[in-house]
Queue: 4 jobs
Job 1
Amino acid sequence: MQFTEAPPQSLHQMTPFSNSTMNKSQFHRTRPWPGFPTSKSLRSFGDANCMEQLLVHCANAIESNDATLAQQILWVLNNIATPDGDSNQRLTCGFLRALIARAAKTGSCKMLAAMANAHSNIAIDTHKFSIIELASFVDLTPWHRFGFTAANAAILEAVEGYSIIHIVDLSLTHCMQIPTLIDAIANRHEVPPLVKLTVATAMEDVPPKLDLSYEELGSKLVNFARSKNVMMEFRVSPSSYKDGFATLIEQLRVQHLVYPESGEALVINCQMMLHYIPEETVNVAIPSANSNPYDFECSSTTSSFRTMFLKSLRSLDPTIVVLVDEDADLTSNDVVSRLRSAFNYLWIPYDSMDTFLPTGSKQRQWYEANICWKIENVIANEGFHRVERPETRSQWVQRMRNADFRGISFGEDAVSEVKAMLDEHAAGWGLKKEEDNLVLTWKGHNVVFATAWLPAA
């Protein structure tokens, strides 16, 4: 994409995210752009709707190659969107960073080349968590705990009576759900079943990041299970979301063929990971009823990796599939549409942080760095590099039905446990039931959904 040249201007005044954000005295010395507000009137731009409109105008300017207008709007945004301001300012700051990253990647004029150089100093530093830090991080809000609690209740009900439970844990948070599930299994059974846990190692490049290997993590989980008198086997599958977990699916298929009469429950636990599977369509074989959808030897058609993955799961005849994800649609190919959707969804974590984490706290910095990573991935990247592609609950429900699954309702125990968990958090969090599904809300806005599925008859 070619940008028109911007008039010569001093870039240092409008490039954000230097070692110290523009302070008040610097702010008032900033030279106003012709036709744009002075520093005294910038405060009128502080509400969320105005900030969203400025971001939209900036994105449109970048996409239409208008470097002059883009630079002017970036200047205004830099003066009102501080990384240590209120929740709206911090949110907008994250989007400003992402727009600069996008402009630096796609532009060619001198101003954007300078931005590219400056961008090397504003890279998002996502923290590598220890196990203890990650457990505390997950406990900060119900964002993940909601899905853990709902899923555990549904899983416990589905595996009743089985002596072997095989859990395939596709989780963004590195098995943080598993200790509570093991504890519940131990308390529920006089003679606990054997638990087989299989995890994919595909999320090492996506935050939150862990500072130890999966082999070390598995050892800790096995030892924890042993302390609860539960025998556990831990397996790592070197499988990636980038090809729809094809290696994992094949490993599960082989195990299913070798041990068809083992009587083990197969639990597929998907916690905010499936939206990383690409949407792009590929040429695939037209599968027969018993064939592998990843087999390319037959006549071909086109299908998305997500469709292939879900159909492959269905062919394994799992005991239960739990699908938990963020209730937002960030899949548009149009960057402005994605920006609007992301801005009107990702205000939630920033707003919720203000209720219990003080400014400058390490946990807030870690939490918001992860959100900034998400924003930049959604806005600045395209193609396979853009991996943050959540879909809404209704879209996933339709995908599951198309793959020949039927939804099941969460029982009263699940609802009660989720409500009890929410009582531990800020008053803004809520729960609602939509059809068979549970939905976590913040101030009435949908945040995360939980669904449970069985193979259709």
Job 2
Amino acid sequence: MAEQIVSSIAGKVADSLFDAARHELGYLFYYNDNIENLKKQAKKLADSKDNVQLKIESAKRNGEIILVDVQSWIAEADNISKKAEKSFEDEDKANKRCLKGWCINLGQRYRFSKEAEEHTLVIDQLQEVGKFESVSCPALPSGIISSSKVFYSGPFESRNSIKKKVMKALIDGDSVSIIGICGMGGVGKTTLVKEISQHVKEAKMYDGSCDGSCLSNP
């Protein structure tokens, strides 16, 4: 019985080692495929970024507020594009030094192939995240821009942090006539407004009840 257990464990370990070795060797076998795939995906990302940038420029012309999520996506897209371009340049230089590929440096091929696969994975993820329904919040009414507060509700700032800022703006009511909470759909803007409304009622901050109409949820 003990021999069977040992044999089973040894077999699983051997399978795991074999799979790991096969994956590592794959970087050499699929070197050209990985490089070409990265080039294609990098081109698609560049096209997607250009499309998002056009939407951003159009929104700015209309005086709209660009979402923080979108700005972050643009920055990440620029970052991975620069890394991919650097990888292409290094690979091209290595091939030229190696008499246009006639002498094969396995270490370099492994590194470039692995980098290409890793960069492609990041680009694929960015492509999914970058399918924005909207890149901006509507502009606030022109007559009250100078006495307004706009807050962003998204993954870059906690709900409590946003809530504290809104409550402070409500306390400073003499200088603020409208409060806007902007963010992508589904991040919890409406829930946050309801929580603040309930807090305002309980604190009796106003003579009348605030049903949420005292806040703006674009």
Job 3
Amino acid sequence: MKLNNNGFVGELPSSLKNCTELRVFDVGENKLSRLVPDWLGVSLSNLTILILRSNHFNGSMPSQLCNLTRIQLLDFSMNDIFGTILKCFNNFTTLAKKGNSSSTISSSSTGMTVEYIPNDGSSILKEKLSEDEASLIWKGKLSVYKSTLGLLISVDLSSNRLTGEIPCEIIEIVGMVSLNLSRNRLTGQITPEIEMLQSLDSLDQSRNQIYGKIPTSVFQIDGLDVLDLSNNNLFGKIPIVTVFVNKEDKD
């Protein structure tokens, strides 16, 4: 269900909870408001893609979102969500497995085919989607992904009013490719165990209130292409950087 980029207002109708087989739910770029409904994580537990980007949702993130074990792309950016980040990221089994997504997405002339493969590989559910693309903020700009969408694992909670420390459970999402927590009011320090996120291509924690030193482990994420820690309260020496050096130059 794609209802993005319209002028919808008010709250999400509770009747949507009856759409229990939804895999993709995108209502980004509207004027929707009120709380993020808890039934998103209860009735729509099969969601792979959930985009609420650029609306007027407020309140805290409901704990029921922890039930979205198949989630692959979660985008709540540019809203008015406050409170702390959920500590249940390690419940997101798709995000937590490197290179072992529960869904693969490919393009075809008739639309997009989504294949859902259980962990035991016992059965495969295939379905056609009318649109073969999804949009998300990637490396600072709005991008549209088509055939490569199945390879993308992304969490974007930027431009809200989130507070508190970044939960340590986040390092268990070893399959995550993009993490954007920028433009919030987050505190605490960058965990030295950040290097466990070896799949990260883009990490943005800018414009928060994060303090302390930059752990050297940040620069041990081999595939890291974009790193933004600007406008925080970091101090100390900048670690020796090798991750952005051309591999040929390293040799």
Job 4
Amino acid sequence: MILEYIMSKASQENFITVVGGHWLMPTPSNKVRRLSMQSSGSKQGNPTKGMDLSQVRSLTVFGSQDRPLPFHSFNNGIIQVLDLEGWKGLTNKHMEDICKMLVLKYLSLRRTEISTIPSEIEKIQDLETFDVRETNVGDLPKTFGNLKRLRSLLGGSKKSRKALKMPQEKNKVPMKALRVLSGIEISEGSTTAASLDQLTRLRKLAIYKLNIIEGQKTFIDLCSSIQYLCSCGLQTLAINDVSSNFINSLDSMSAPPRYLIGLELSGMLERPPKWIVELKNLYKLTLSVTVLKTDTFKLIQDLPKLFSLTFTLNAAKDDRDIVDILEENKQLDREIIVPPGGFKSLKLLRFFATLVPRLSFAVTGEVMPTLERIDMQFQAFEGIYGIETLSSLREVHLSVDNQADEITKFLVEDLKDTPKYLDKEYVSKWPKIITV
């Protein structure tokens, strides 16, 4: 009811015009300034027919749609926001029209079929946010470096391990306005690693793919650039490293990246960096499941602001290297124990990995006193024990892969059925088990 009232007032005040979806909004009598096109699930005709779109400043689409875009009706000299996420039918040909929108500040092509960015993109000199995540865009044109006002560049896809290659030329005038650089690839011989240290205002750096050789120039340049950026105020660092051993070299940094509030190290990580204990402002931490061991919990348990802790790794179920590492991580009693004490601010604990070994929470002492939710996505699972000792735990979400074996399925069902065997006084304390 509240949403319907807001929509009605927005229409009356000509604040935003919504077409499609389940909203039956009257055709505006005034010129449309902000247009929202929503998927209706029906093959209706042109929903913008009869509307004056010459004054549209902002276009946002919701849902997966295949109807044509009304580019011909826009005034390219005034449109500033173009959010086309998920729009089916958007092709490289449409980029010709988009590159004519010279005052565009926000452009999202996320989850569209775009695969190529033309060199004419440099004409959009006011562009501040450019989002090509989960598209087929793998390279950017050399002219992209001329966008001096760009603040956020978002590309690649974590799920499919796709990454975005930056232009292979070192700009005479660096993109110093850049604050967020996410989803990029760094390969041996590229100039990207050496160019990063020019981005002194960068606050988030996410590298989705590394193809470099230890000891070579690119490897050394990347180490140097990341260390320098961390001293300049980098707040979020994410690196997915499957084979280059780069994330293990971070342990040798001469000074801890004390400004970090978010850290993600995925891949064949041998051990967490020792300087991690000095990150007093760290809020979100993601580590490879290869360091899922009791000692890791002991190392990070005193981080005062840690809110979210995730262990993750994409690997095949029968990857012997991963299986062997997880076996080595277990103590003599064949399980990983979360010790009591510490984790005073932790509310979310997550495990996103093909294999999740047996995990137990200590039955004595205070364990993760503020933890409210556990999320687990896996194909093979050896069980989780002692959750009744977590005083604040409310929900446990288990996402089980379709290819999970019978033992894993049995352990999940057993966890769900546990309340049936508890005394009444303990049933109310048992967290809600949700399976997907």
